[in-house]
Predict the structure.
Amino acid sequence: MRGGWQRTRARRRLGLAVCGVTLVALAGVLRLWWRDAATAGVLVSAIGAFVSVLALVGDFLRGDADTSSRSPEERRRAAADALADAVREQWAAEARLRRLRDPAPLEVRWTVADRRLADHPRNVRRARPLPAPRAGRLDDVTAEFAALPGRRMVVLGGPGSGKSVLAMRFVLARLAERSPGGAVPVIFPLAGWDPETTGLRDWLAERLALDYRPLAAPADERRTLARALLDAGLVLPVLDGFDELARPVYALAVRRVNAELDDDLPLLLTGRGEAWAAAVAEGDVLTGADVVELLPLSLSQAGAHLERTSRPRYPDGGRPVTVWTPVLRVLAERPELPAALALTSPLMVALARAVYGDDTSRDPAELLDEERLPTVEAVEGHLLEAFVPAAFLDAGPGAAPKAVRRLTLLARTLQVRGRGRIGWWELDRLLPPAVRVFAPGLVSLAMLSALLVPVVLARAAAQLASVHDVVAVLATLAGQTLGFALGTVLLLPSARSRPRAFLTRQTVVTSGASMLLWIGVAWADDLRFGFRFGAVSDGWVPDLLGGCLFSLLFSLFFGLAGLPRRPVPAGLPWTGRAGRAVARVGGAALLVGGAGVTGAALLGRIPDPWTALLATTGAAAGGALLASGTRHGGGVPEGPRAGRLARRFAAGLVRGTAGALLVGVVACTAAGLAATGVTILKTRSAEDLSGRRIEGWRFSERHGVRSAVTSRPTRGTLLLPGDGARAVAYPEGSPPADCSLPLVRERSCVAFTSRRTRFEARDGAVVVRLVTAGAAGGETVAYAANLRSVLPERGRGWLTQGSVAGVVDRCLPPFLAAGVLIGVVGGCVCGVYRLLSVPSDLMRAAGPGSSLRTDRAASLSRGGCVALLVAVVCVPVVLLPGDWGGLVHLGTQLWLPLGTAALALSAWGRFVVARVWLAATGRLPWRLMGFLEDAHRRGVLRRSGASYEFRHLRLQNHLAQGLEGAGWHGGGGAPSGRGGDGGRVPAGRRPSVRERARAFGREDHRDPARDPRRPG
């Protein structure tokens, strides 16, 4: 491994040496040949970046060498230890939440199942004597499992019989005995597996990577870390819920398990007895596995647990009784009642404990109502229906129905997805598809508008917009929203995308989209005068298509950086005190400096709007860095390494620049050729206007020079780029953008009124000569394309008619330069994203709220740093002599939207959209995370790392059916079905079982609050 790293470093040094020699030679040649030293310097920088990337592109395609000092085995063991910590924290918290030991676990007994459902005894015991038929408690399963030579066991039981609790307790017991680097027991709900399309190992690895995100990191070129742990035997699968598979695939599932798991790999599988019997009859037994069956609870076991967990009362100073005492007496007399049969399930006992707890004021005697609850299924449905309202009883008036409605929405979502867990970053799945696709663009525009507020207050915002027509502005915004939507779908990688294949796809998609959009721009706009960025357009269609192109470009940058189509939470790169201290110091400096400059701009002391905008962005980025420096990273712990952050940034910069240059140059060349081709078609024929007068214009041609002259006053604005470069003329009502820039003091805008305006064309290349009056009067030669609107339509075609080479020379070069700029900016975006985007440690996250706050800090820091770094990179473009091709406009328009796009496309940005939409539509509350945490605290949901899931699949299924708790009345009123007569029996009718229990309760179960003999 060390040798590979040394070879990689040698290749990079050789590439840098070649680049250096090439740049020196290039600088000498250009300095001798090019008269303008500033232009030569800019060309050296641009071509040097291109050559540097070409020298390193081979290294990019080969991939980075593994710089880790740990061996693959050590990495796997460290990952297994981290996984063990996460699993232990997850299920220990769940055990506390379910009150499994409050005051003591409900003891479920088991026995050996029918021998026909298990493998041959010799395969199970492997030459050891087979013990006699036996039974035991739930805690004995772990010891029984350890005693099996093959360590494979199938646990059968009915619905709600305690299989999931057994799996939980089994996992905790195995983790307590686990040594460092040993196998980690992990529960896999089988409901999400399709044996017909996915192999077991593939599904286990995919599920591990989904539920424990750090394991999605690559272990080598072929496998993820999750797959490496499985292949190394460091995962003990606990397959929970075999009966939740589709009935036709039972046999295939067993065959898949036998074929794909190693003979010595431990395994625990749970399911219903009838499902396993069908699988064995149609397929096979589980090789080397013993089969045990959980026994139903006896009524005495259930009653003892319910009595033990209820508040004791002492009527008449005698023996203690509880709310359950009269009900249990009746059930003991009538064991055939549906309630007695339902309470043989541990799940129903746990639900009954919650529904009829001391805080609910409900009377469990309603379970004896045979008219309302005539079957066991009706009793179970009643308990499931009443559980959520009982859990939220003390949350305030009206809270219980709202909680049921909101949890029903989550349950239905999980049912549709086929997964049992949902994270806050996945809540955008609840949005309509159109909202989910278009929202990132709208969020980016909203954040951009918020950053522009200080500039508006400084009364300088007019210089930031190149188009003042409302329709054009709306068209640009609509185009940007559409571009974000298309880019999110087409240019961001999915979870299964391979880097090289996806880079090819990005190149093809970007080139195709750019060609189509630029064909539309060239057809709707007039590019015959030449093309430059920031020019005045004809109508709203070019603005719409231009906005779409702009946002597609942003999506391309983040797609190259590796931002997935469905982003996951990110952590912060600093894991030690030194890194956090640097973040705090840097953030404080940016915050103080940016706030000071912004305040000066608001007071009118700094008239330049771009300075105010840069300062505002710097203050926002500084605040985010300062806040993130006060938090622990939350990323995957790798330990402090010197230069690790610098190497990450350099790798992202090199890879991003190479990819962005490739895509940018190819796409811009294709788009330029397409736009040029359309423009050539539009200039092929034109009416001869020489010697004619049209609408006050006199057209003539002399010595190959065509001209159009008018003496009517022409008003507008001249943009003076400085450095003696040609001015750019803008018509009245469309003032130029970027009249002043912080680093270009000579750049300015002046209004003009031309007494005589003359357009001159040589081979289709048109300039305009403006003769102005006054003390500063004279003739000014300016770029003519923006003034074409003052010419008659026929005059435009006649003036621009020329050779094909002339059209190519006027239109294509700005596209090629834009491709190089895209490469440089894309490299910066990728470098920052790689630096500040480390995977969040969702396995060991303190909770969903903690991972949300960490991702928010990382997203804000990343967005601010992207904007500032791109602004710095665009400085050479701003200083480009003469504002060639309008690239200054492109450079000034890139940096800030890229920062807001980074926020909008992050996991936190998607969550903000989901939160706002779901709250606005009334489907979920505004305090969404608070509601989910409250449901977890009340025992309805359970936490799995940074995700939530329902405490039991039956509860999720019941809520997904849309039952909203119609039988719940809450409070201390009579339960549903109870009369208001205080329980009196009409004359002439025999008392029912429920009425006898109520009468028994009035005698032996007085309310101690009203009993004068209650002990003080």
In short: The first helix runs from residue 2 to 33. The CA atoms of residues 194 and 245 lie 8 Å apart. The chain is about 50% helix and 10% strand.
